[in-house]
Structure formats: C-alpha cells, structure tokens
Amino acid sequence: MESIMTTSQEPICQAVNLSDGQPCTAVATTWENLFCRFHGKQCHGLYIGYKRRNAKLDALSNNAPPYLRQAKVPLANETFKDVEDEKTLRDIHAHLYQEYVLLGKVIDARKLHHKHFYPLQMDYGHQAYLDTLSSRRHIVLRALERLETRTAQVLYEKEKWYSWVREVQQEEEATREKESKKVKLEAAMFKRHWNRMQARLRAQREKEEKQRQDAYLEAAYQERVSALDSEDDAEMWDPIEDIAEDERSRYVDLIKHFLWMEVLSDFDENENSTQKTAAAASSDTSIGVGELTISEEKQPKKSKKKSKTKATKGAGASSDVKAQKAPSSQNRQTDQSRTTGQNRIVKMIEDEERLEDISEPDKSNIETESEMRKRLKEGVEKNYGGVDGPILVGTLEIPHGTHLKTAPLADEEIDSLMRDIKEVKLLLFCRLLLSHASLLPAAVRASSVEEFLNDPQIAVSDLRDLCLKVEQPSLQDIRDACADLIRGDEPQVEDDDEDILEEESFEEVILQEHRYGHLQGPGWFLANMLAQRQKLIDSEKGLAKLKKNFCKKPRKQGKMKIQICGKSIWNYSSEQSMSRDGWLQFSVLAKDCDLHHAVQLCRNWDEFSQLNFLAVWQYFPASNWVSWGSDRLTQQLHELGFFPYFKDFEANQISRHVQVGARSHHRRQHNIVEARNIIVGHMRRNDSVTRRFLQYCSMRSGELLLLVRDGKTGKIITAPEEEHLWTIRRKEGLGRASKNEWEIVLEVGPAYFEMVDILRKWRLGFEDYYEVWIWDLVPCNDAIPLYNTIVMELRRAWRVTKPLDLYKHREQFLRSLTREEETLRVRSIRPGEQATSLWDDVTNPDNTFLTADIYNRKILESKGEVHKEASPYMYYNEADAAEDFVLFSDELISPDRDVPFKEVSNSITRLETSSATMINILAEEARALSKPSKDVRKFGEINDEEDWSTDSGFNNDNEKRIANPWSLPQIWRDAIAMVNQSHITSEKEQLLRRVGLLSEASDMIRSEVNSLYDIESKFKQADKTMIMEKDRSAALIEAFHAGDLEPGAQERYAETCKILGGILGSHQNTGSTDWVWLIVDILDWLGLRTDYETYTHDTRAGWPHPFITQDIVKAFVQMAIFFPNLEQCKPMVDFFSSKEGSEYKDTLLLKPHERAKTLPDCRTRTSFKYRPKEFWNEWETFIKESKAKGMYYADVYPLKWNVVIRPILAKLYLAGIIAPAYLQNDSQVVPGLAVANEEPHRPGKLDLFMDYADRDKAIQYPQNIPGFVRPDQWPVLLPLARDFASKHSNGKNSPRFAILRVWSAPHFYPAMLGDFNRHATAFLDGAGRSWIWKFIPKDMPISDWSMYNTLKLRLELLKDQLAVGERVIYRNEVILVMGLDELDLLKYVTAVTFAIQTKPWHREIDLWKSFVNVDIKFLEGLDPYWLD
Predict the structure, then answer these.
(1) Distance of CA 209 to CAs 212, 215, 613, Å?
(2) How do residues 340-377 score in pLDDT, each as one tens digit?
(3) CB half-sphere exposure, 1164, CA atoms < 13 A
(4) Which of 204, 1046, 1103, 1298 has the most CB atoms in a 10 Å sphere around its CB?
C-alpha cells in the first residue's frame, strides 16, 4: 500500500505523444521533472533543430538570387514578367522553393514543440510569430505559383495548348478556396477516411514505442557521454523530418487510394472500442484530425438538417435517404400543400424568400474496386423518392423484376467497366492537374502518375490541394474524364454547327418590345438596340462586331491536347457530346448523383435526349437515376419530347367559391379564389416537331394558353394577351361579387419566371431549347383534360398514326440495345454480336398495346396497329395531314428541317400589334440618333403602302422621285405637264379652280410635292388617324386576297394589279390629254375638290381627305380599259400595245363574253338565316345522335368533313381572317359550329359553312335592326335594265350598262368586325377549337344585309349626282350602272368606282367579276348568278 502511494506522488511527464495525441503516463525524470527521458530527448531535439532551421532561413534570405535582391517591388507583387531566361527562372524557383520548405518546417516545429510539450501554457508572442511566418510562407507560395506560370509561359508559350491551359488555371485561381477553408476541408477529408488511415497510425505508434525502448536501453551509455547535448546527437531526436515525410506520404497514399493504385488497408472492426474512441479524440496535427472530433450524438442531427436543406433547394436525394425517417403521410401531404406549386410561389413572393442554387450531390464516399464490383454484381435498391405520380410496371421499359432493384451486370461487363473506370480515374487526375499552375511543369515532365507523385519538388500544400480536388471532383470534371477515355489519343469528329447570328430588323426589335416588353427583361431590347446602332454606324464592320459582341456561343478553339503524366488531355471535351458508354461510366462513378444533375452536363439537345432515353430503358445501374420521369404521366411527356420541370395540377383544390346571399342573417359577402393548372417544360429549339406542337397549342386558345421563351436569346416568341396571364386571382369583400374587381395574386411574368427558376430541380447546360409555359384558359378545372390535350397534340406533332409509331423515332437506338434474358439488364450490343435488340422486343407480334381511348371512354387492346374501334382522332389522321399541308407547306421540301417556331404573322397581326406608322417614325428617330452626321438629303425611297421611311441609301441627285402617300401616278404627272405647256383658257381655269387643281401662284395645274422638306412637313401636319387608315387599308387588302380561296382568284388579282400598276406608272409624253379634262369634269360634277387639307373622322364619310386625285385617277384607269373606242381612254388602251403591256393584250379581263361563260367555283353568299332547312338535314341528324349518345360533338365529328374544313380554316388563319379565340370551347359560350356541306350548283364539292343556330343561347342577337331589308325585298336588276334600255334607245343614244361587283371572298365580306362584335361570330371547328372572325363571315345571320347597307350608305353620299335608284342600282355586292352612251357610262362607272374605293381605301371593285360597257342583250344572256 505504501509503495502505491509513493508511485502516485511521483511527477508525471506533461508531454503529449506525437503518434496518437494521448498524454504520456511515464514518470518525469528530466527537465526539472517536466518530461520523461524519452520526451526530454524529443523536446531538446526539436529545439536544436528549430534553431538550426531558423539559422538556415536567415542565411537563405541573405543569399537570394540577383534578380530578387535587385527587385524594386516586394515579392507579394512580383510577377516575373521581365524574366526571359530559363536559367534565371530555375534559380529563382530553387531559392523560393527552399525558402518555402524551410518556412514550413519552422512553423511545424514551433507548433509541435508548443502543442506537445507545453500544451497548458498560453504564449501569445509565440502565436504572433507563427502568424508572421505563415503570412510569409503564403507570400512565397503565391510567388512560386506566379513563377511557375511565368516559367510555363517561357517554356510552353509556343505550344498550342498553352492558352487553353492558362484559361483553366485562371478560372481555378479566381474560384480558389481560402486557406482557412482548405484546413477545414482537409480535416473533414481525413475524418471521412479515418478507417483507411488506421494502418498508417498503427505503424507510427510502433515506431515511437521502439524509440522509447531504445532510449531506456541506452540510458546508461548516454549518461557517460560527455557531449550528451551535442547537436549531432540531438538530431536523432528531431521528429520534424519524419513528420514532414509522413504528411507527404499521407497525401500520396490517399491519392493512390482514390485512384485505385494502392488500396489502404481497412480498419479492423474488431479492435477494442476504447482504442477507436481514443483515436477519434486524438488532437495530433500530424494525422490531421485534431479538429475533426464530432460527437456521435450530434452527427445525425447535422445530417438531418442538411438533408432538409437539400430537399428545400430541390437537390437530388442523398445516398443515405433510407436512413432518414420519412414523415408521415398526413404531414407530408400538409407540407406539400403548403410548399409546392403555385402556393409556394405566392408565399415566396410575399415573403421575398430566396433559395440558393442546386447543390451537387455528395461524392466523398469513394468506393474501392471490390465495393463497386459488389454493387454492380448484386444491384441496388432503387430510390423513388422524387417520383410524384403513378408508376406503370410490366411495360417494355419497366418489366417485372426490375422496378425495385437495378439489374445486376454480368462479370464480363463488370470487368470491362472496372478497366475503364481505372483509366477514367487517372484521366480525371490528369485533368485536375491542369488547374494547378505550380504542379503543371512537374506533370508535363512526368511520364506516369507514379513518377509525378514521387517528384520531391512538389510542395506538400500542393499535394494537399490536389488531394482535396481528387477526393471531391466536380461532376463536370468526371464527365470530361469519361469523355477523354472514349476519345483516346485521336479527337472525335465534331459537327461544325456554328450558330448563325439571328439578326433582328429595327422594326422587329421595336415591335417585340412593344408587344412583349413587359414579359422579357430589358437585356434583350438593349442588346438588340445596340446592335442596330452598330449596323447603322458601319454597315460593313458592324456585322462582324455584332457577331463578336452579341453571339453568346464563344468562338471555337482549335482541337489540341497536352500530355499530362503520359496521358493525352484534350481541350474541348466539355464541348463534345459524350457517348452512352461514357455516361455509363459516369453513372457508376458518381453513384450518388441523379439524372437531375447529370442533364446539366449535356452539351446539346441530342445528348440530353439520348441520356433521357437510356434512363427510361434502365440502361444505368444507378439507384437515383430512376426518379427521373419514372411516373407514367411524366414518362409519356418525355417520350414525346416535352420535359416538364414545374407543374401545378391542383387548381381544383386551390379554387373556392363562397358567397353569402342577401336572404341570410348576415350581410351579403363573397370570398372567391380561382386558379389555373399550369405546366412548364423544355422542348428542342428549331425543331420541326416542336414547331408543329407549339403551333397546334397556339390554335387551342379555347382550352389552353401558351407562352414560349427562347432559351438562347431570352426573347418571348409568343404569349397570350395580357388579361389572360393570371394563374391565381381572387375577390373578396362585402356586397355582390359581380361588382367587385378581381385581384391578380399570381400571373405569368418576370417574377413568376424567377420563382420557378429557383424552385426547379434541374437545369440544362446548353441554350438550344424553348421554354414552354402552358396553362388552362378555364380556371378551377381538373388537370387531366389539360394533360390529355398536351399529349394529343404531341402525338400529332410526331405524326403518330398507330401505337407502334410512339417508338418509331427511337428505332436507331433501340436497335443498338439488348436486354439480358436472365438478369433483365439493358446493355449495348457489341460489334458483331447476334443478339435480340430492344427494337425486336418492341415489334414482337406477341406484344399487346393498351390504349386509353378518351373519345369513346374505353381501353383498347391491339398489336401495335390502330384498333378498329378506336376513334379516328386518337392518332394522326387525314385531316391532320391536310391541315399540316397548309400550315407547314415548307415541309414538303424537307420534312425534318431545323426551323424555328414563330408566331403566325400576317398583315392583320402586324396591324393589330402596332401600326406601321409608329414603326416608321421610331425607325427614323433612331436613325437620326445613330447617324447625326448623315446628310439629311440622303432620304430613302418610300413605298406607298409599306415602309415609306426606311433608308435605302437614296442619293441626292434627284434621279429618283421620293415616293410617299401623296405621290401621284406617273401618267397623271406627265399629262398635266403637257396641259401646263399648252394654253389654258379662262373657262378651264375656272373649272380647275373649282376642283382645287389650279395653282394660284402660277396659274397652272398643281404638281405633286416631291422635295424632302415638303414631305417632312406633310408628315408632321398630317392627321395621324388618316395615316393610320392608309396603313390599315393596305394591310386589310393584303389579308383579303390571301384569304380568297376561290381557285385562281389570287392569280387573277395579281394580274389585275400588274396591268393597273403598269398603266399608272407609264409615261405619256405625246397624245391627247382629253382624259385629264374628263376627270376634272367628273370632279366638278361630283362637287369634289383635290386640295382638301382636312380629314374627316366620320367613319361613314368618304371625304374630305388629301388623296382625292390619286383615287379618282385610279378609278378612271380601272374603267377606261373597257372603253377602247373612246378617245379619252386611248392612253390607257394603248398600254396593251406597248412593250410592257403586250403580254396582257389577250387577257380574259378584256373579254367579258368569255368570262361570263364560266361561273366562279365557290360557294354562294347566302347567310345561315336564309338557307333552306333541308340544307342542314345531315348536320341536324349528327347533332341529335351525338347528344343521344352523350358524346362531345368533336369526338365523333365525321372525318371527311374535317378533311375539308380544317385546311380551309388554316388558310384563313394564316391570312389573318380568323384567329384562335380566348373563349371556352363549349357551345354555351361559342354560338357557331363549322360544318362541311355541298350546294346544288357544286355537287360533290364540300365547302365550309357556319351553323349559327346557337342552340345553347350563347349570344343574344338583336331582334329589331333599324333599316333592315330582307333579300327578297332588294331590287331585281335585269327588269330595271330592260326598262332603261327601252326608254332611251333611239338614234342618238345607244344605252350601255355595267355590272360592278364589289370584291368579296367566298367565305367573308371585306368589312372588319370590332372587338366587341367578334364573340357573336365565334365558332367551334371539327377539332373542338374556338375561333373568331375578324371580318364579317357570309354565314353570319343578316350578313348579306350588312353588305347591302354598306353600299347604300356609300352611294347615297352621291345620291343626287349619280341618280341612285334610277341610273345606279345596287343589290348586295352588285351594282348596276346605266348610261345613255359609252361616254356617259364611263362618267358614271368612274364616279361609282371612286365612291366605293376611296376612304377607307379597303373596298375594291372586282374587275374579273364585273362586266363594263355591255349592252342589254349581254345582260339578258348572263347567268342569274352574275346579277345576284
């Protein structure tokens, strides 16, 4: 007992073991009883070594190379850019490297000395000195990096790869972690690999214990040695060299372990638990775990919190998902309703909440080769954590037996994968070396990785940084390494698909900003405006600069490689698509990654699409990759090329409608919330399938709304009207709900774009896509109708004609894959292998295809063909093909062209979005700002009907006339010039003065304004409404004739325009000018003047306006060509004898007898109200049968009718005559229905008709219309003509007649409908789509009276002059004009034509259906059609 007390009172050594960080328990016998003999020697050796190294450090500073001694800038700012000599660089490097190593040893020695021998003492001076040394070492390290960079530049600047490698290094330097963070990362790394380091720790303990035993054995001898404290003896106890070497070896061993070059021994799990605890608590810096100790109790909490954060960010599931406790179903549902979809976005906007970007998955759990082999051999359980829909098992893609675990790989495939992955790890290591400037020279010198790791010149800190990189490489680095392996030493052939800069015209930029500026950011507008300015400043150099500044895709570098540790590393792997084998290696290496992360690494749509396809067919043995599109609804969209990344199909749950009526005990109040289902996804850019799908969707505005953003430019390509952008709205308060305004809670726009981008789970790494937003038109709906519509239109876009066609576009890939019969593993077919491909499985005649027929509401089974009972509208059919023939006529040349999606653009859409006047004014203002020094006299030639102020570089030499709205026809200018050269009598001067043609200053006929100053004055002074009306008339006329579907009508109209344009533009230098005086007489007779400066805003008035001269001359020319015998018409008739007009001398336009023989091949004008009831018999029978069966009419609509109707509607749509309506496609909302039928005069020819019976009372039509006249009350023309002929036929007079027909198309009149009237003419087509007419359809009830009334109002403006009702009689669109002789008739028809065609300038006389200057016998021989 006494002995024990004595032992306990002996002093204990206060040192801490270097090996395990545990306090020493030996008796203190040296250094005043502070240390045991062993630690006393260690402490003294450390001190002696520390002094010696300090002395070397001081000596080294005094012997610096000449360049450093003479440097005028401190080392921290030295760039070595002035050094050109390799030897000088080597000397500087040797000096700095030696200084860096010495500094490291001095710092480590001081730390070890204090921490292990004086752990309880606080020495602030010691820490301050350490901080000074650390700062100095950091400066030396950065100087070494700059020196290595300069050395590489001197040595390798001529190498092609240098600039590329330098870019990589600069990027790494810009994103380099701070030293303090690297220390934490290092500690965490060793914590993760603690078990792997136990073998090294045991060896270190054994070494220290051996030294302790040797110390005791030699104690007696050492005491007798007189030079006990000599430096030579003390050096053997200095541990710094061993510790430094051990630290270096530790990093090298870990790198080799990561690269599968040497696998560290696994820790013996059966070791004493106290040793494991002691090791975990060790604070020894030599093994780098001093700061690692994390209690076992806190670790799960931290992991759980981290997992929750990732889930909030939308990151992929981590590898330990199974270990975490899943929330109860009730809590999960409550949480989802609170934090998902549009509710989540509303909350984020209200709370101004912002989330971080998606984080990468944990890659630190590096498997050994044996672990990876086991995983691939046995398969792993699939993680369905991210799946939120039904999973269909037992399909070709997911057969039974593969839905729970990944299919195991065969030994042969595993062996091949292991060989590849070993090589990939080495290539990954070499690629990571590129970003380290200080390691690059050594890596270039080394012929292998082993040689590089054994290079003594590599600093430990560099190895530390490299080890951190190798342990946790980025997914991009892994992908590039996989691509490097596939390529090898030879580069792959790349498609040279340089992007073509998509230039926008100035008008397009202004129009785009005007239409969609509220939806797209200011960046697009600013960039394109700057581009326009650049083009204007220098038209030659501007394009090159524009491409340089605004083309997003960087210029491609040349193909080059660099040898790193004997491996070829190519510079463009990140720009090249990776093969399926490369992605297989990637999925095995990055096992905790999911497809949400992998798709970000794809470089183009083809690679992304292939990756998705392979994942669907379970090609990748990765547990987390199955959550990508595994639910059947999403998978179906993926198969058809639509990849949603955000959806909210809970509109029905969000919406509510609560109202308390006035009869209750409470005040009248309401609380209403309406929501719309929405889905957002990506589709391939500039793709024919995408274009078709988006076009189809844009035509279904009665069901869904579409917004498309270009992923490359950010431009909004199409969007609905602003009033339809909302997705959630509400109204609440007291009183009636109808008197309260809606409050928009959430609407599609920039804020919505930003929130969705934050919440999304994945992003693409390229810009070759469209961002497609689709949401319901009708709120509070179930989501299934919207989903079914999208799928249906996608099938149409792919032109799927039968179930088997769904796989047709993937035939090439399916033929290259096979499924193992035993394991069900899908793999690539090897070259020369005879195996059953997946395509063989798909086309197996024993397969059964189950199809849900939503039209007939039943499930159909087939063998890949269309079921005989299936609705013809389930798949692409004849009607779809007929419509596509019109919508996508360019595909007749090449069906799979890369074409961008564009909104349907025509003169009407341009007119409605922005008038051409505004475009022209803005364009001129921009040009003035862009080119202030430009000569204003260089004014461009202006087109009369289009862009009459664009700059075309017109010279100021007056060789060309400046065209403008006030321009006069050339033939008129020449004629009045001849008149002005002749004598004008006073009587004629008075006549000219009465019509406003006489110039008081010169007593001559006024000529047109042609100077630039006068034109600018005219523009400034002109009535804006008048200019808008002129623009509008040109747009309407263009649309009218584009929508004229009568065979040959457009060609005939074009011929007429060429004839009239040729006559008006011809020169008259000789001949009679009597026609001028005839026009003047007509103006005087009608009481019109040509010098009006005012413009009437009365829509019914035809004048005053400044264009009287132009209109009367045009009307005269149109009629004069039919009077070849009159002298006044000779200049017009002579045109057909000229060189320009000779090709038209035999035109049928001048042969009325022949024209009259052929009736127009088009439907009659009769409106719905006046058609006989038997005309609708077949249609009425169809309606009754569909209602009796409870079927929606469009589901059973006769296909033959759709084949006829839909192409007609497509043509009218492209012309701008009709447009998709923002009206629910229901007969309770839309009054009309499109019907195909045939008329008696066109047997066998179906045409488009409208049924406006309005059975569900969608519209309240007016009952009593003032001035209404029924068609049977209209005058009959032929008897009136006979009466006139009989009264005026005598020797002096030979009555002549004209039948003038106002132009109209087969299906509509040239009269625009106001926005407030369009709903009344809305109709549903055979596909259930809602449409509106923009012009009066001929089937509209009382439409025929509408045209009759229009002619009445116009002709009655000249009722007295024209003797309307006696000499001029009208019936619907036909006007009978009667004259006593040819001259008298010419006078009247000119006046009538002028009255019809003048303001608002969009009505025309159809010369091909008019008969001018004919006698009564001709009229009597006409078919009644011509007179009706």
Answers:
(1) 5, 10, 61
(2) 778 878 777 776 655 544 555 554 567 888 889 999 99
(3) 18
(4) 1298
